[in-house]
Amino acid sequence: MNPRIAQTSAPLIDTLAERWSPRSFDTEHSLPEGALRGIFEAARWAPSANNSQPWRFIIARRGSESFAKIESSLLGFNQTWAGNAAALVVNIAETEDAEGKARPWAEYDLGQAVAHLSVQAQSEGLHLHQMGGFDREAIRTAFELEARFLPVSVTAIGAIGSLEQLPEALREREAAPRVRMPLEDLVLLRD
To answer: What's one GO MF term for it (predicted)?
Structure first.
């Protein structure tokens, strides 16, 4: 039994069952021009309230100035491994439109867009790890974001690397079997 494949209580499509969030990225892997187009096209076609599409992305390849800005905003253990990814992406919710009208579902809609892009990435042989451990204000400042743009998460994208490049504490987490709460614990009411 492969510990990286989800052990599910109902059948899933292979792309979902095989998707996981590695911390070990191949430092030799780089993304050729256009390699990310498909995954962001998947994000573009995600559903959103009133078709508002309140998501924006900052995409930075390893070695660029923008990548360094994003990497420096990462907190804790994220700084020890995420810099090995081929790209870092800041996922941003547009919480107000250009006229100042609130978009109360923007973060939810962004989550759907990122979910779509993560499934597309998996189907294209790329791996992602999403992070909440970053300094939101550092991102705002580094990229001069307007107040209506809320950085919500950062995603590392690339090919899987070796466990040996991770600190010992992270190696154990990386190799551990995937676990989730039982489905019955997630459903609050079923009629």
So the answer is: oxidoreductase activity
CA distance 170 to 163: 9
Question: Identity (one letter) of the amino acid at 70?
Answer: I
Q: Which CATH number fits domain 35-172: 3.40.109.10, 3.30.1370.10, 1.10.287.600, 3.30.470.20?
A: 3.40.109.10
Q: How confident is the model at residue 2 (pLDDT cuts 50, 70, 90)?
A: low
**Rounded distance, CA 116 to CA 181, Å?**
22
Rounded to two decimals, the pTM is: 0.92
**What is the model's pLDDT at position 168?**
83
Q: Which residues on neighbouring strands pair with residue 60, listed in sequence order?
A: 88
Give per-residue pLDDT as tens, 7-22.
Answer: 888 888 888 888 888 8
